[in-house]
Amino acid sequence: MKKRVVVGLSGGVDSSVAAFLLLKQGYDVIGLFMKNWHDESVTISDECPWLDDSNDAMLVAEKLGIPFQTVDLSKQYQEKIVDYMFNEYEMGRTPNPDILCNREIKFDVFLKIALKLGADYVATGHYCRKDITQNKQNKYFQLLSGKDPNKDQSYFLCQLSQEQLSKTLFPVGKLLKSEVREIAKKEGLITANKRDSQGLCFIGKVKLPDFLQQKLKPKEGHIVEIPKTFSGYQNQKIDTRKLEMELAFKSKKHYYTKQDGKVVGTHQGAHYFTKGQRKGLGVGGTTEPLFVIDTDVNENVIYVGLGKNHPGLYRYGLLVKLDEIHWVRPDLKIKNGESLAVMSRIRYRQKLEKATIYLTDSGLYVIFEHLQSAITEGQFVAWYLKDELIGSGVIS
Q1: Which domains are seen in the chain, by residue range?
Q2: Which pLDDT belongs to residue 378?
Q3: Annotation says 201 is catalytic
């Protein structure tokens, strides 16, 4: 019996080639297009071409001679992703909807639909690889970086479980993007030269503040510039014999009040801004660009610093609360009081950095060898051993 695979055909080149490769490998392939969003009040339809994408996915399925259908997951998407986004922004955190979409929609809701269609696996066009390792008792699925260093998407899958990985295939993970386009051209797939989609379709080319204004109403507040000489940046003496105190110190965010700086402008809502942001502040006449170093949604204040080397942008560490730690490889989990040298990143496309993770009563600390810019609450940190992603968590 042929194994059956349901491919999430997105109308892009990566998933198109994934379907072709699976067919070539002898699988029974079905193409499914996920319609996640169609709220015309928030997007300009022309700028969020889900109809075009659906059509391209259908033409690819026709060309490959595989069954195809569209599933409407917009209700689940609204509940699990969009509502979560609004809540996070309202609390002054910056969410990562792509990671949540993979955990909650593609590899959960979509996976369950695929299993009902008799699928043995689901497959996507993600640039990452899967392998299996075994110890005496159990076998474990490994989530490995994609072969193309410029396209590695393992970070976006950092919240997947062993159960989800066991049912997943990543056919393009061993290829470079250029090779994927070459295959698509050779096979005459309509998506061969299609540009990669940027970000979530439902935001499209609508600016994020415009989208957020559907629920989070504009409210004028002050932009306050914090000087580099702010007293909180001066190294305080810490008792390094007490490890947890040192970890907490290296991970501690700075807190500001309006009295710590000077008002340099106004904004329309602190929840529209995120740490490290440079554009959209509307404050001119400075010797260097201003960067957001913190936001206070309760007081509706944005704190900014002058220049990309402003000390308010940098920290050595971060904390993941105990209930927000996720191990892709549960067998590699560290115990309270233990530490592990890893490679880590706090955003997609960031090169992996040397770090050490420590598990304590307070949570899991990730302490980097070098200072990190714009560590942002609500985003995800992922940690690796060599090219294997073994765990992740929400930055608190």
Answers
A1: 4-125+171-212 (3.40.50.620), 221-309 (2.30.30.280)
A2: 94
A3: yes
